[in-house]
Amino acid sequence: MSNSKYEQMWKDLGLDIAAHDGLLDVLGGFYKDIYLSQKNRPKGTDYLDFVLSEIHGLRIQELMEAKAQGRKVFGSFCLYVPEELALAVDGISVGLCAGVDVGTKEAEKVLPRNTCALIKSFFGFKLSALCPYIEACDLVIGETTCDGKKKAYEIFNDYHPTFVIELPQIKTPEAKKLWRSEIGRLAAKIEEVSGKEITGESLSKAVRTVNAKRKVLQRLSALRKANPPPISGRDALLINQVQFYDDPVRFTEKINTLCDELEERIEKDIGAVPADAPRILVSGCPMAAPNWKVYFVIEKSGAVVVGEESCVGERGTRNLVAEDGQTREEILDRIAERYLNIDCACFTPNDERLDHIVEMSRKYKVDGVIHYALQFCAPYTIEAYKVEKTLERENIPFLRLETDYSMEDASQLETRVQAFLEILEQKRCG
Ligand code: BJ8
Questions:
Q1: Domains 4-201 and 205-319+345-429 in one fold
Q2: Measured distance CA(296)–CA(141) in Å, rounded
């Protein structure tokens, strides 16, 4: 992944070149071991290999060229920040969540050690000057979801301009009104930063673009119902991660082509794994790239992930924005409605999430659910109790994992996953 042809661009962005080269080398090694080692991958995954090989190169060059033409880049860390608003001013929306613990030491100089790895990771990226996406952003948009994020944004703002929107945590009519007004406040801020007006027409076009991206991800999910699944869980995870970086129109086109190929594979009974591989649903915290550890552990142990109940998965793609709004204000109403339907554990109560986990378990015919939570993430580690009780009632086997971004616990996770797969095997035979 290291490529000196971009060195000047990285220098101009203020990156720490030596540390950044080290990061790209580590990522390249991970990718080779976890992705390129897979056998019988669909040909369309070439697109993923290309995007990953250029994730800090060509894509950043595109962002810089867009900026040179006066377009603005908006970064965010959460599904509740509507990317439609950035697109409506001809801006670019990028996800900034990070899934690697390279900047942890720096982050821990500012944040408590018992902060979740996701927060420490993006903070560490900023403090260590390792992320060209953050550096390319004209505005970072935060949200009041968990306490860790909202307090971290206050400090992050000292390092990079950060605008925080208030997300309510209970879905009452009053909360919906507050949320709608926050969407309006964000729209106004995006107009101010970009110097462009959001019109009914530009917003409607943006809604259709993002809906098309969600539809192709829904199409991909549906294809994973097949037995054997035509694509591995880790490739599907990567697709869900890449959607936060790549151009949405190009992404939609490439993944549609990949889905055509997956349909052909299903017709010919070509699977990414044997048909008897245990089918797993992963549920919980989002896995930002390059957080591939748990999927790798699961699939290396002989199972296959067929769905993700996660923000990097169906939590982010299941709902579309209604396309019947005409005016700017009507479309903002539809956007506010759609986004408040997301079932993050930051909300209370959050029973929709429990229903969705059961629904997905049935839909993808899973043998078991693995609940994944980052250490120190109170919303998901606490909500895991309710998930467990719900799945117990439904007689769906459940395993609860808590981890971080280090590789230190990989063999311990492997032992626990293998023991779980044995239980699934016994259940199948019994
Ligand atoms: S909509 S899941 S992206 S808030 S893991 S930082 S919750 S302590 S990521 Fe999230 Fe939006 Fe919800 Fe999705 Fe906090 Fe937990 Fe860390 Fe988390």
A1: yes
A2: 31
What global pTM score does this model have? 0.97
CA of 70 to the centre of ligand 1 (A): 32
By three-state DSSP, how is residue 329 classified? helix
Q: Is the CB of 117 under 6 A from ligand 1?
A: no
Residues ≥6 apart with Cβ < 8 Å to 391: 357, 358, 361, 369, 397, 398
Are 282 and 307 spatial neighbours (Cβ–Cβ below 8 Å)?
Answer: yes
Ligand 1: atom nearest CA of 77 is 3
Distance between terminal CA atoms of the chain? 48
Both tokens assigned to 226: 């097949």
Fold (topology level) of 4-201: Rossmann fold (3.40.50)
List per-residue pLDDT tens for the chain, 430 residues long: 545 799 999 999 999 999 999 999 999 999 999 999 999 999 999 999 999 999 999 999 999 999 999 999 999 999 999 999 999 999 999 999 989 999 999 999 999 999 999 999 999 999 999 999 999 999 999 999 999 999 999 999 999 999 999 999 999 999 999 999 999 999 999 999 999 999 999 999 999 999 999 999 999 999 999 999 999 999 999 999 999 999 999 999 999 999 999 999 999 999 999 999 999 999 999 999 999 999 999 999 999 999 999 999 999 999 999 999 999 999 999 999 999 999 999 999 999 999 999 999 999 999 999 999 999 999 999 999 999 999 999 999 999 999 999 999 999 999 999 999 999 999 988 7
Residues 6+ positions from 351 with CB-CB distance below 8 Å: none
Separation of CA 327 and ligand 1 centre (Å): 32
Domain 205-319+345-429 has CATH 3.40.50.11900: yes
Q: Is the CB of 118 under 6 A from ligand 1?
A: yes
Residue 181's Cβ-count burial label (10 Å; 0-12, 13-18, 19+) is: middle
In the reported structure, the alpha carbon of residue 235 is separated from the centroid of ligand 1 by a whole-number distance in angstroms of 22
Ligand 1 pocket, 380 CB below 6 A?
Answer: yes
Confirm if 285 and 310 have CB atoms less than 8 A apart.
Answer: yes
Does any ligand 1 atom lie closer than 6 A to the CB of residue 294? no
Domain ranges of the chain: 4-201, 205-319+345-429
